[in-house]
Amino acid sequence: MEPPQGSAAGGRKRRRRGGARNRRKALSSSQQAPPLASAPPPPSSPPAKRRRKDGAGQAAATPKRGITSSKLDQMRARLSAGHFRMLNQTLYTCSGQDAFDYFKENPNYFDVYHAGYQEQMSRWPEQPVNIIINWLKSHNASWTVADFGCGNAAVAKNVDNKVFSIDLVSDDPSVIACDMAHTPLKTSSVDVAIFCLSLMGTNYPSYLEEANRVLKPSGWLVIAEVRSRLDPNNGGADPEKFSKAIIQLGFSLVSKDAKNKMFILFYFRKKEKSKAAKSIDWPQLKPCMYKRR
């Protein structure tokens, strides 16, 4: 026999009221219980980047971080310095003819080399070419000069003398491009021969022999050389042996200036009547080698 409908409805109502009372009790007991350790809050999202406002009041886009112009300049300078070191080492470790052929095929490399050379020289407290220029100015302006390995032809640009500027390659029409062991200058035609940091080839004695050929009797041979290349305590040549070899070529040593910490200056004079020794013991000048960076 089915229960009356009213009884069933009343039972459902009583169960709902009982469920509500149970929930209120549970809530009351949870408020009296000690709190549980709360879980760490989720990481907050990064704050939105502020946008600058331009003069019109509109938001300007925040510039992206990247390589600044100063960093690019530093990178270019490092690449240029590395290229210069490579070319400089090449010049020290090959013959003059090989260097002439190399730069003739790659004339742009010569510009890179001289740009690096000028940058390196700017760090020296004193430059030997300036000393040589002042020495020439204090002597006879009628002297004819041969500048072997002239670079940017600083000597010719700063003295009143007639100067034959000689180098491997040049876009300057006033510079004679050739191997310095074989120049087009006439025999006994110049009064001064200059080698300013330019005795770089493995066959450097042939450059000095060529200078001896073109110099007049009593002519001057002026040499500026990196000090480390003439430091026997550091693998370089003995400067006394270097001088002795040039004396055997037919010169006398007038003076030597070794007070500068970066280079040594030699002033030789060609003898009036002399013959070069048949066999000269030329010391090997230390090449400038660079460690990989």
Automatic annotation (TrEMBL):
Signal peptide: none annotated. Residues 27-36 have a biased composition (Low complexity). InterPro entries: RRP8, RRP8_N, SAM-dependent_MTases_sf. Pfam families: Methyltransf_8. Residues 1-72 are annotated as: Disordered. It is found in: Nucleus, Nucleolus. One of its GO terms (cellular component) is nucleolus. This is Ribosomal RNA-processing protein 8.
